[in-house]
Write a structure and sequence with these properties.
Blueprint: H1 13-23, H2 37-55
């Protein structure tokens, strides 16, 4: 048995899942979707305090909207 890993853009995931679903019977034993969005969101939450201290001034107020989670 082999494991195949595919990196798929968000906009194309439905197409790939459709292809996998059509192949699944007698060909694919297991299909698992792993998203890296959770890792990105966790990083943003952990780093928000540090970023607020760096960007907590009038000069960088344009970037404040990116600190909101």
């Amino acid at each position: 048995m082999y494991t195949v890993t595919l990196d798929v853009e968000d906009s194309n995931i439905d197409i790939v899942l459709n292809i996998v679903q059509n192949l699944k019977e007698n060909i694919i034993a297991k299909c698992e979707i792993v998203s890296d969005k959770n890792d990105t969101q966790e990083f943003m939450i952990l780093s928000q305090n540090a970023l607020e201290k760096i960007w907590d001034n009038e000069e960088d107020s344009v970037y404040d909207k990116f600190l909101e989670v």
